[in-house]
Structures are given as C-alpha cells and as structure tokens.
Amino acid sequence: MARRTLAVPALGLLVLLGTAACGNDHGSSDARPAVCRTSQLGWKMTRLPGKRQTTPAATLSAENKGAKSCAFDGYPDIDVYIGKGPSADGKPKKGATPVHLELNPGHTVEFPLFYAATPAPGDGCEVAAEYDPSITVVPPHTKDGSLVRMTDAKGRHVRAQVCGAGIELGSPQLR
C-alpha cells in the first residue's frame, strides 16, 4: 500500500512538470499574430500616372504603425463614393494571389488598383472627381474602416475619380 501512495503523487508531479514545459513554448513558429486592426494601420492611396488599362491606376497601401506584428489575411474592402449617391467598390482581380501575410511593425503591404480613371470619349464617370468623392478602406476580418485621401506621387491631394465598372485589387507586395 505504501508503494501505491507514493506512486500517485510522483505521477502527478510528472504530469504537472510535463504540462508546464509544454505551456512555456512561446517562441513557437506556429503562433499567428492577431489580425490587423484599423487602429494599427496607416492607409495611403496614391494615384499613378498613365491611362492604360493594363497598368494600375493607383496603389493602396497599409503600414503597420502598431508595436506588434499582425496577420493581414485577405483583401481590404474599398469604397469610393459620393455621399449616398454613386459609388465604386473594390474586389480582388481574377487570378490575384490569396493573401496570408504577417505584417511586422513599420512594414507596409501594397495593393495595385486597376480601374478606369478617365472616361472613354463621349462617356462620363460613375464617380466623378468634381464632387470630391470619399474613400473608405476596411481591413480584412474587421468592420471598422478608415477614411483615406488620394494623393499623387508627391503627396499632394488629388480628387478620386472612377469611370467604369469598379476597382480591381491586384496581388499585394510587402515593402
């Protein structure tokens, strides 16, 4: 009987030590950071020169301004709109690469945006620049968005304009 009494506490101690050792593995490469939230991302939308449909009309970038890495898994929602009136929203371009990125502090993910920024001869634009449209961007897996101003390559404000069916987001690049 004495052996059995001693064996139970010894077995319990082994289980406790084994559990503690497994629980302290904080450096595991399998750990994914939390999703990127609106509050830790700084968004920019930059209009690019050129009018060809095969090149991006603009880029949309998000910088991780937080102190920790975050998971950027998916494409952001983008909406260019005039009040409650006309709008153009974004969707991933056909064949665009799925997005599963870890965005480290100070790093940026950049999406090329494909859309008609000037009207075809004789046509107008669904979202015309003359009304100075608003732009809202929402990170993947969140509901809160940010207002973004479009700028040119030198950082000067330019009015957004979307002519045609909408905006397609190309495959992202980390910077």
Structural notes for this entry:
The protein has 175 residues and is mainly β. The protein has one domain: Immunoglobulin-like (Sandwich), CATH 2.60.40. It is 13% helix and 33% strand. It has one helix at 2-23, and strands spanning 41-47, 58-64, 70-72, 77-81, 87-92, 101-103, 108-116, 134-138, 146-147, 150-151, 163-169, 173-174. Strands 1, 2, 4, 5, 7, 8, 9, 10, 11 and 12 form a 10-stranded mixed sheet that branches. Strands 3-6 form a two-stranded antiparallel sheet. A hairpin with a 5-residue loop joins β4 (77-81) and β5. The chain is globular and about 55 Å long. 24% of the residues are buried.
Calculate the terminal CA-CA distance, rounded to whole Å.
68 Å
Q: Please state the average pLDDT score.
A: 82
Might you state the CATH topology name?
Immunoglobulin-like
Given the structure, what is the number of helices? Answer: 1
Helix proportion range: 10-25%
What characteristic shape results from the CA principal axes?
Answer: globular
Strand content: 25-35%
Number of strands: 12
Classification by helices and strands: mainly beta
Assign the CATH class. Mainly Beta
| Gross CATH architecture | Sandwich
Tally of domains: 1
- Alpha carbon gyration radius: 24 Å
Short key terms for the protein model shown above:
13% helix; 175 residues; disordered N terminus; single chain; Immunoglobulin-like; ten-stranded mixed beta sheet
Summarize the structure.
With about 180 residues, the chain is mainly beta. The chain has 1 helix and 12 strands; from the N terminus they run H-E-E-E-E-E-E-E-E-E-E-E-E.
